[in-house]
Amino acid sequence: MPTESSTVADIVVQRLCDAGVLALFGMPGGGSNLDLIDAAGRAGVPFVLTATETGAAIAALAQAEITGRPAACLTTLGPGVASVVNGVACASLDRAPLLVFTDCYPSSANAFAHQRFDHRALLAPVTKWSATLSAAEADAVMIEAVERALTGPSGPVHIDMASDVISVIGRRSAVISRWSSVDQSQSSVGRTTHDSGLTAEHWRQVTESTRPLLLVGLGARAAADTAAIRAFCREHAVPAMVTYKAKGVIPDDDPHFAGVFTNAAIERPILNQADLLIGVGLDPVELLPRPWTHRQPIVSINSWRVDEAHVPFAAQFVGDIAAGLDAVGGRLSNLEWNLSSVGEEVASQRRLLDTSRGGFTPDHVVRIAAQAARGVRVTLDAGAHMLPATVLWPVAEPHGMLVSNGLSTMGFALPAAIGAALLERDRPVIALTGDGGLLICAGELLTATREGLRVITVVFNDASLSLIAVKQQERNLTPAGVALGEVAWCALAESLGVSAHFASTEAELEGALRDALSRTGPSLIEARVDPSPYGEILRAIRG
């Protein structure tokens, strides 16, 4: 614990430890970062050097999602802050509690213009709160920062630190941290007092429903919520769809699994059978930006109130998710779902993505990798390969698939895999990425090598921004700005200490996966794919 002679850096790190932060990620500068890294090391919190500031934020974000606790990254002033914005925006739109520490000039350096701009103003649109540390208020600021990051919807907060403050003796706050020794993944942090929000008319709709359908989102991934949802489905024989980020809340092989919900075309045959939609932890930030055209009433059960501009919730139950499900379940009777029929429809969805043609196609890569790495956590980059992966890769537990959904940023899969692999070093993590996405963060291969992580990067190589190319074709536009050029991925990986394999056939991929899964360090598999099915897959999923 901090003592009366503790520096501000010591106080900050102690509050990070109290909140459950397991590592600091970033690219340090020469100012306050160094004091924070030193204090963290003395407290047993490792610093993980990443190749980019965005990679640092995404690696931390992955840890926050998996643990349910805050995670932290740091940057130097000026260019470091400018570079971290994409990762912070990802945490914002994916509702991840992230503490972002940035170096800043001391107040005595007001005359300096070099590398100076308003950090708080730049980060304001993608953070929940911002503060500047002072010796007198550092402890209180940290307590509030953690609370704000965790309060639903969770998200990033920003803390500016000057070198002339971080190293001086700080003052402990009289406030006792409510986060000490708390497992945030099991706690009720961010949950509001129960507010049913349901009128007599809404309860009538619930009571009269014969085919309610759960739409499970990112706000329902905590262990207690997952248990409540699974119990609800079993007790009432009700099916549930999951968003990308909620995959695993209902396992893909569970009889109540009704597929993935994105507000696209592929899920409509099942949705159209429902007479009531129940969003459980569903946040509209997860959905495709398309008009909501579903005719059924939809109600929300969530630990925070969500915006109704996109999804016209008839009512919102705000509070404990298990309590909300119990209240709804007590009104249900005479339900008419045929779960076998739902399962057949889900199987039909998967068959739609089977290109059944010659060649080494992306859907075959996903199926083979999923079979070889059953039970392995997977991270997905944005891009055309993500479409078959989200449908075809089976997930059995929450956070078994990590994906940038709210922001849908490229360059996500590899740093997210690094953050995940650091939590369980004996467990491999597979990162599925396009070649365009990997170009954005290829330097993180060296991070995986330096940390000795079992990260297996599968790069879908077609030398193109394939999803954009498909959209150009759909609009009859001349292809432009989508050809990446050839990259010798295996040579690049090996130059960074990563074991590399090339695969252009199913047999080569199977062999590469066997070798990669047997290794204790990082591997890369360059899968040279035929991109021609992407248009067909996109139309099958999104319409």
Characterize the overall form. Answer: globular
- Can you count the helices? 21
Report the β-strand fraction as a percent range: 15-25%
CA-to-CA gap between the ends?
Answer: 57 Å
Total number of distinct structural domains: 3
* Structural class category: alpha/beta
Description:
- The chain has 21 helices and 18 strands.
- The N and C termini lie far apart (57 Å).
- The strands form three sheets. The chain has a six-stranded parallel sheet, sandwiched between helices. Strands 9-8-7-10-11-12 form a six-stranded parallel sheet.
- The chain has helices spanning 8-19, 32-42, 53-67, 79-93, 119-123, 138-150, 163-166, 200-208, 223-236, 268-271, 321-329, 339-352, 362-372, 386-392, 413-423, 435-441, 444-451, 466-474, 489-495, 506-518, 534-542, and strands at 24-27, 47-49, 71-75, 98-104, 130-132, 157-162, 212-216, 240-242, 257-260, 276-280, 298-302, 315-318, 377-380, 401-403, 429-434, 455-461, 499-503, 523-528.
- It has three domains: 8-166, 3-Layer(aba) Sandwich (Rossmann fold), CATH 3.40.50; 200-340, Rossmann fold; 353-542, Thiamin diphosphate (ThDP)-binding fold, Pyr/PP domains (Rossmann fold).
- It is globular, with a radius of gyration of 24 Å.
- By secondary structure, it is an alpha/beta fold.
- Helices cover 38% and strands 16% of the residues.
- Mean pLDDT is 91; it is low at 179-193.
- Strand 7 (212-216), helix 9 (223-236) and strand 8 (240-242) form a beta-alpha-beta unit.
